[in-house]
Amino acid sequence: MREVSIILPIRASKAKEQARQAQHRHIAPHGADRWRIRRPGGDDAPLPIRSTRPTGGPMPAPRHLAATSLAALAALSLTACASGGAGSAGDSINATLGTDPGGFDPALARAADDYVVDRMLFDTLLRKDDGNVLVGGLATDWEAASASDYTFTIRDDASCADGTPITPTVVADSLTRFADPVTASTGRTLALGGASAEITPDDAAGTVHVALSEDWADFLTGMTLPHSGIVCPAGLADPEGLLAGTVPGAFSGPYALTASQPAVSYEMTLRDDYDAWPAFADPLEGTPATTVTFTPIADPATLATQLLSRGVDVASFSGEEVERFDGDDAFTPTQVTGLTSYLLFNQREGSPFAGRPDLRRAVAQAVDGVALTDVLTDGRGERIASVSSDAVSCVSTDDGLLVPEDPEAASAALAGVPIRLVGTQLFGPGNEYIAEVLRAAGADVSYDELDNANWSTTTGSPTGWDVTLQGDINLMGTLTSSLLRVMGPSQEDGGRNKTGVVDDAGYAALTEAMAVVDPEERCGPMQAAQASVLETVSAAPLAAVPTTVVTAEGISIRAFDDYIDPSTMRVVAE
């Protein structure tokens, strides 16, 4: 691998120009009759951006993540090979991923591509339908006796890819591993909070009982997470093989992984014996493809060209490429919003933001949220007042709680402060904008742009970074999902929190809300939890990022509210 200099796209240049415009008040004299934006070391020239990418093979694409509750479609574009379609004949679908999956162990899923492949390979007890309604997956019935007491009836006709029946014991063994803190699943705190779980199967009755040590009202929704996918006995017996995808009998979902070549392709084959499709209120049309092949592809501009030429038949876009389909009746656009963005600070020892809410506030003061939203979303996004989108229940819409832009105050606090900014390629222009305004405020900024998988790994580490523009896929469509990114157990302790600080007041309010079964009654403590995040500036909300899914004739895929389920891909008659 070698480092390659990449010429910035137009949108990145736009980010720099927006940064300069946003900083027009922040100027310093230079000589007798010149003015310039003040930068560390007196250098006011634009800094080149360098991107470390492998050469000699497919170049990882920026992650255009669809804002989904269970999976992201920005990592997912699909080519259908139905009659008259592109590619080989038959009912195969050629799909794409932004980068290689991190593995095939659903409990260890961390990034968008992981969620996509896990949804295809592993079934969960429950699934999500329109209106945040739950429907059965491997469970036919479920009951919540309280916020800590749950019982599931397991369907009696489901089996693993190797023919092993999926009994309550199989389900309980898999969920027990998922719930074990030693497994360190990032989905654990979403599903259970800080509780431990006693999971008891009854094969004779066909049920699984779950007793949590603490109330967690989001548990049922947590059982829709790809992380909670049921791993069959063969996979549990060989965790290394499970992660590598080399255990054929591990899969409980509709597809089995039949070929895998990193950076080239991942082939999945529909199981002949599978008949456990969810009964959505609006039944799916068409037929599932016999073969789905996922291949890492290039950037969204190339993807748009392929879609227009019918090289691919469905793709998702979060940038200007979607304009190429405007007014074309051969394509149908569907917009979803569930991906939010906000500044997130590493508050562990060694970061300049540890114990320094004043410096975190100063960074937020340096950023013009309206300008950032425009740069990040090409004018399609909306400013947000919390870490979730306005469509999520109990979310705060009070922008009076946000840190107001104040470049002069930012400069007074940030001059000479070393800041390590890391960002995902998905938010390249937004990252560029932030780097520019922080340098203009006098901070000594180093910036690393990473593919989404490496960005997730880096910001999941306690060291090596100070601040990031967080792209938050709301996995469950709940406020809890986003709040746990900035409070509660840290990632090194098996949680989702990237900041490294629990936020005792905020997490106490969240825990209080999770003891309440009635969703409407949770809003009071949920408002308090959000207020704590904003007061301490553990996060600075910025933009909701819309994603448009464009489909051509011959393919369908289902959007449920603001989430798109890749396992609903179907070949339909044109």
TrEMBL record:
GO terms for biological process: peptide transport. Keywords: Signal. PANTHER family: D,D-DIPEPTIDE-BINDING PERIPLASMIC PROTEIN DDPA-RELATED, PERIPLASMIC BINDING COMPONENT OF ABC TRANSPORTER. It comes from the Bacteria. InterPro entries: SBP_5, SBP_5_dom. Gene3D superfamilies: Dipeptide-binding Protein, Domain 3 (3.10.105.10), Periplasmic binding protein-like II (3.40.190.10). This is ABC transporter substrate-binding protein. Residues 134-417 form the Solute-binding protein family domain. Residues 22-61 are annotated as: Disordered. It comes from Clavibacter michiganensis. GO terms for molecular function: peptide transmembrane transporter activity.
